[in-house]
Amino acid sequence: MRLGIVASRFNEELSAELLSRAKTEAAKLGVDDLTVNTVPGALEIPLALQWLAQTGEFDALVAVGCVIRGDTYHFEIVANESARGVMDVALECGLPVANGILTTDDEAQARARLDKGAEAVRVAVEMAKLRTSCS
């Protein structure tokens, strides 16, 4: 299984924990080839995913990051456009891409959802297996 993870560095402490749990889950699931790339924020994740997908070297990809609502409309833009971009990569490339980007109202909600990094890895691996069985 060749898995790629793209992780945002924004909200660094929370994003780092999401990535750590994703990597731990990948090891538990026996992923033997893991590539991790980091990007500045959630809006940069889809492009990095696309670059990985275009290599043809991966069975599945995972996006992880953390976007916390602020006082401006920027939250909606980042939350919506990063999710749309992740889905676009999956559909355009025909590759499983699991979205583990948290979009929460506050830090407490984000902390309560840190297992979403591991969950995204489980989803990606399951979908990669399904893809193989459908081929």
Describe the protein in words:
This protein is an alpha/beta fold. The protein has helices at residues 12-28, 45-55, 74-93, 107-112, 116-134; strands at 2-8, 33-39, 60-68, 97-104. Helix 1 crosses helix 5 and helix 2 runs parallel beside helix 3. The radius of gyration is 14 Å and the shape is globular. The two termini are 16 Å apart.
Task: Describe the structure concisely.
With 135 residues, the chain is an alpha/beta fold. The protein has 5 helices and 4 strands, in the order E-H-E-H-E-H-E-H-H. Strands 2-1-3-4 form a 4-stranded parallel β-sheet, with helices on both faces.
List the helices and strands and how they pair.
Elements: E1 2-8, H1 12-28, E2 33-39, H2 45-55, E3 60-68, H3 74-93, E4 97-104, H4 107-112, H5 116-134
Parallel strand pairs: 1-2, 1-3, 3-4
Helix pairs in contact: 1-5, 2-3
Multimerization status = single chain
Give the low-pLDDT segments: none
Helical stretch tally: 5
Order of helices and strands: EHEHEHEHH
How large, in whole angstroms, is the Cα Rg?
14 Å
Strand-residue proportion = 15-25%
